[in-house]
Sequence to fold (164 residues):
Amino acid sequence: MILTGATGTGKTWIACALGNQAAREGFSVLYSRLSRLLDDIATARLGSGAGALMRRLARVDLLILDDWMMSELTAPQRRDLMEIVDDRHDRGSIILASQIPLTSWHRAIGDSTYSEAILDRIVRAAYRVELQGDFLRKPARGGTAPSGSAIDQPTSNLEKTTVK
Fold:
């Protein structure tokens, strides 16, 4: 599943709600921001834990990757991501949450061969949900949203979020 939309439209909330339900039904679930997961793999490669981490990722029933393609990948990150996606292809589920449009993912992955291979395995069979609507996060108690920002929305509009 691919969840896309502007910041604050509920992508992470929906991904985590689906993950929570999957866990309640007995499936194993792992949530991570993509950048943190790739950093964890890079750190594991410094020792001898990379293989164990990659096997753990391959075994989990549902992998939720948040903040997908927020920055361009390095060559080692591309290889690691390809390994993750290939290990899960037709064997495990992935939920991606991203505010970056699908049309920009090739550029963020970098190398065209890797981007084609990774995205073919993900996008081809994915359910795609584009969230639209107002910012859903309420400012901290007593705090206010920055004037003119994307979160400068009256609370009464929070119910108007739609799914396309």
Residues 104 and 117 are 15 Å apart (CA to CA). The helical segments are 11-24, 34-46, 50-59, 75-88, 105-109, 112-123. Residues 145-164 have pLDDT under 50 and may be disordered.
